[in-house]
Prior knowledge:
Layout (H helix, E strand, L loop, with lengths): L6 E2 L4 E2 L11 E6 H5 L4 E2 L6 E7 L2 E7 L7 E7 L5 E6 L15 E6 L8 E4 L22 E9 L4 E12 L11
Antiparallel strand pairs: 1-2, 3-4, 3-9, 5-6, 6-7, 7-8, 10-11, 11-12
Amino acid sequence: GAITSLFDKLANRELIDAARPYNFNGLVRASNTQATFALWNEMALGSATITVTDAAPEHTLRITRAASMMPVTTLTLYDGIPSLQITDTIDRTAMRVATYDIGFDFYDIAMPFALGSYTAYVDWQGRPGVPVADNLPGASIPYFVAHHGGEMNEGAYGVRWASPEVMVWEWNQINNFGTT
C-alpha cells in the first residue's frame, strides 16, 4: 500500500527521495523514549485497492486499505493548477494504547520529498523556520511548536502541508527523517 513514485512531468523530476528511510506517505510511530533518539517504527498499512476518477477538472487516485490505521489516501490533481493534493484519513481507534511504561506515542506521516537545499517556513507567512514559542519549557526535547501547516521551499519549487487539526511537532527533528 505504499506510494513509490511521484513524477512531475512539467518540472521533469521525481518528487520522492530515492534514499528515503521510510515509505512515502507512510505512517511511523515512536514511543516517548524512541522519539528522543529518532527511532521510528514504520506501521504496516495493509493491502491497497486503487480507484481512479478522471473527471475534469478534478482527477483523483483513491487508495483504500481495509483494517488499517490509514484506511484512505486520496491524491488529487486539478486542471490548470500545478499542485498535488494528498489527503489522508487516520483511524485513531486502531492505534495502540500507550501504557504507563511507554508514556505516550508519536505518530507521523513520512513525506520524504526529493528537495535540495531549502528554506522552511511555518504557516506560510514568510516566517523563517524557527519556533514561535517554546510550548513545553523545561522539557528534555528542545521545543515543540503547534501549527496548522508549513512549507519547505527551494526557491522555484516547494512542498506545503496543512492539517485541519493543530499538529505538534519537534521542529529540530525535521531533518532527521530526510525531507519530511
